[in-house]
Amino acid sequence: MKKTSKILIIGEIQNQHAAHVTVELLGEGRKLADSLDAELILTIVGNDVEKTCKDLLRYPADRIIAADHPSLKQKQLETHSRILYEIVKEQKPDMILGGATLFGKTLLPTLAAMLGTEVITDAAGLEIDKETGELLVTKPAFDGKSMSVVSMPEAPVQMALAKPGVFKKACETDGREGKFTAFSADWLQEITERKRTLDLIKEEKKISLEDAHIIAAGGRGLKGPEGFRLLLQFAERIGAQAGCTRPCVDAGWMLPEQQIGQTGCITKPDIYIAFGISGAVQHMTGVRAGTVIAVNSNPNAAVFKYCDYGIVGDAKKILEEFLKLPL
């Protein structure tokens, strides 16, 4: 049986705060660590991160290791992978978990190559095989229509990247606080930079689908670009974010970052309004809403099994009529 004594979570900082997926992994990692009687360690790499790390001590990590250096201010693959490699060599974890964010999907596979091990991305479920002690990872299959459970029986270090929004955020601990350790990163200044960030161009602030309180999403029932133009107008009017199903991205009607479901993002809004969405499990897996409202012309559509309120009717026509109403 595979023995696991240390689980290392590679945390991520976004806008001077811990990314949501990092706090989610602390909760799931704690469950795995408790089931294995293992130590749970969180590592944070960046610049001026000590305060963020100490804030994270209220969550259920046994230890937090921080690498704090000006060279780590920007997310650079070369410097971040080098410092994490040194931390892993020192700590010798049996399992490494990280977030399947844009940077995480680049960083952790690079780290895995440096360690000579494997990594599984887009994890939607993590559990331990009771017979072998191996990490079992549930993730979307290649066809995007089903889920598969995979493991890494030959990997010297088991690594997995979890999709943001899949797991519940960790609860703050009551009376228990982990230890904080600083990892020296002074030697980073000796690394010759192959590339340097000269300037950052800030885009207009947008709320991600993972953080949205209200989402208006469309499916093929909106019948093309014109239907989605109406959806975007509707979303703007009610203060919602717009999302869609995978076929609508494949058709070019919406952007990939607006895709919700197994192969898109996981959402947890207060209200989810589905226009012309059939309700396939691949999409509804990404919908964890407080209230679901569905509009579909097919009274037998599967989406009505998931909704709290349903309207049988042409989704595009209903949007047209709504937009005629005075503000």
TrEMBL record:
Gene it is expressed from: etfA
Species whose genome carries this gene: Anaerostipes caccae (strain DSM 14662 / CCUG 47493 / JCM 13470 / NCIMB 13811 / L1-92)
Gene Ontology process terms (BP): fatty acid beta-oxidation using acyl-CoA dehydrogenase
Molecular function terms from GO: electron transfer activity; flavin adenine dinucleotide binding
Pfam (any one): ETF_alpha
Protein name, entry field: Electron transfer flavoprotein FAD-binding domain protein
Ranges for domain Electron transfer flavoprotein alpha/beta-subunit N-terminal: 7-203
Keywords, in A-Z order: FAD, Flavoprotein
Binding locations of FAD: 220, 245-246, 259-263, 276-283, 296
UniProt cofactor note: Binds 1 FAD per dimer.
